[in-house]
Amino acid sequence: MKPLAVYVHIPFCFLKCHYCDFNAYGGRSALEPLYFDALLADLDSWRDLLGERRVVSVYFGGGTPGDTPPASLAAILDAVRALAGDWDPDVEVGLEANPATMPDGYLPALVRAGFSRVSFGVQSFDPSDLQFLDRVHSPEAAAAAVLAARCAGFEHVNVDLMYGLPGQTLASWRATVERAASLPIDHVSCYALTVEEGTRLARWVTAGLVRLPEADSTADQYELAAELLAERGFAQYELSNWARPGGISRHNLCYWTDGEYLGVGAGAHGYVGGVRYETIAHPRAYIAALLSSRGAGAMSGRPAVARGERPGVRTALLDWVTLRLRLVEGFGEQEFAARFGRTFAECFGPAVEELRAAGVLDATGGRVRLTERGRLLHSEAVARLAAALD
Predict the structure, then answer these.
(1) Is there a smaller number of Cβ atoms within 10 Å at the N or the C end of the chain?
(2) What is the tens place of the pLDDT at every residue in 288-301?
(3) 2-255 has which fold?
C-alpha cells in the first residue's frame, strides 16, 4: 500500500501569540465538543482513501493540541487507525504542546493512547525573550516539561526555538541553544521571527513600536545554532531542523519529499492523488459543513474541502525543487530527470551556473543541494530558479 501521513488541525490554544498567523483561536471554546465530532466526520469522508493507504505518521498541530483532553485526541487517533488500510509498525504519532498548560498525568495518558513524539513550543530559555513573545512558561517549566515527557515514555522530544528576536543577543541565543541541547531531547527546530501580515506584531513594527534586528545579526544566530548543535550530536537535515541519530521527524519528512498527506480539521492543508487542497478555515463553518446535510465541499464527497487544485507542470516542478532544496541532502540528478523528463540543468539553464558561481548551489557528484551559505539564501535561490522558467 502507498504510504500516507495524516495531519489533524486543532485550532484552539490558551493564548494566540502576537506573531502567529496560523489558523488559531485563543481561549478555550464551547465549540470544542462539536469540533471533535466534526473531525470524526471529516475523517470518515476520506474512508475510501484511508482504506487504500498505509499510515506512516499522524501529527496533531494547531493551535495547541496539547491543551486538548487526552481522551479527545485518543478518539481521533483511534478513528484514523480504524479507517487505515494498514498501520505502519513504526508509525510516528506526534503533537505540539505548550510546556506550561499540561496537568499532571497528561503526558502518560498520551503515551498510553499511542503518541510517540511531542514538540514543545519553548522558543527561548531567556526570560526577556519569553516576555516579548507572550509565552506563559518559564525557562524552568520548559525544562521540566521535557523531563516529564521522557519520564512518561515519549520516544522523541523536540523543542522549537526562535531567533531574530528584538533585543536578543548572540550571547543570549547561545545560552538558549546550549540549554536546549543539554536536555534529553533528540530534535531541535530553530525558526527566525517572521513578521506576517495581519498580525499584531506587524502592526507594532509598522508603528515603530518594535524594532527587528539586522539581517546580518539574524544570520549570525543561525550559523551559531548550526555550530553548537553539531558539536552536541545534532545533525542538520533540513533548513530549520536538527536531529540526533534516530530523531528525524518522519511526518515532516513527508512534506519535504513530496509525499502524500491527508489534512483534516479547520484550515488544514492536504495533498492526495496529485491534488493540493485546503479545508474550511473557521471552526464554526467547518462544523456546520460536516454536521449538517448542507455541506457539499469543493471535492466530491469531501464536505470540509473549501478549495482544491491539481498543480500545473511548472508549479509542480517549482514546488518539488523548493521543498527538496530545504533538505541538506538535496536531491539526485537522476531522480529529478526521471520525474520531470529533463535534467536539472536543462530546466533551469544559466541560473544553475550562476548559483554555483555565487557559492549558493552545489551540483556535483550527481546531487543538487544548497551549500552552507546557500541555506541562508533558500528563498533567493528558488526565486532565481523560478525566473529561469519564465
Answers:
(1) C
(2) 999 975 555 556 67
(3) TIM Barrel (3.20.20)
Q: What is the DSSP string of 132-200?
A: HTT----HHHHHHHHHHHHHHT-SEEEEEEEES-TT--HHHHHHHHHHHHTSS-SEEEEEE----TTSH
Question: Residue type for 44, please?
Answer: D
Distance in angstroms (rounded) separating the CA atoms of residues 43 and 235: 36
Hey, what's the cell of 182? 543539554
Structure-block grid coordinates of residue 294 = 448542507
pLDDT the model gives residue 173:
98
Contacts of 299 (CB under 8 A, 6+ apart): 275, 277, 305, 308
C-alpha Rg value of the chain to the nearest Å = 21
Q: Which CATH architecture does the domain made up of 313-389 adopt?
A: Orthogonal Bundle (1.10)
The three grid cell numbers given for residue 106, joined into one nine-digit string: 497528561
Q: Tens of pLDDT along 105-132?
A: 999 999 999 999 999 999 999 999 999 9
Residue corresponding to grid cell 551559505: 373
C-alpha cell at 388: 529561469
Instruction: Report the DSSP pairing between strands 361-362 and 367-370.
Output: antiparallel
pTM, whole model, 2 decimals?
0.94
Contact 94, 59 (CB under 8 A): yes
Length of the chain counted residue by residue: 390
> What average pLDDT does the segment 71-91 reach?
97
User: How many angstroms separate the Cα of 47 from the Cα of each of 25, 58, 289?
Assistant: 28, 16, 17
Please give the DSSP secondary-structure letter assigned to residue 372: T
Position of cell 505540539?
96
Domains 2-255 and 313-389 agree in fold:
no
Residues near 112 by Cβ (< 8 Å), separated by ≥ 6? none
The DSSP element (H or E) to which 243 belongs, if any, is strand 241-243
Q: Which residue has the cell 548551489?
A: 361
Domain extents for the chain?
A: 2-255, 313-389
**Consecutive H or E run containing 237:** strand 235-238
Round to whole Å and give the CA distance between 63 and 294: 27
What is the grid cell recorded at 85? Answer: 488500510
DSSP single-letter state for residue 90: E
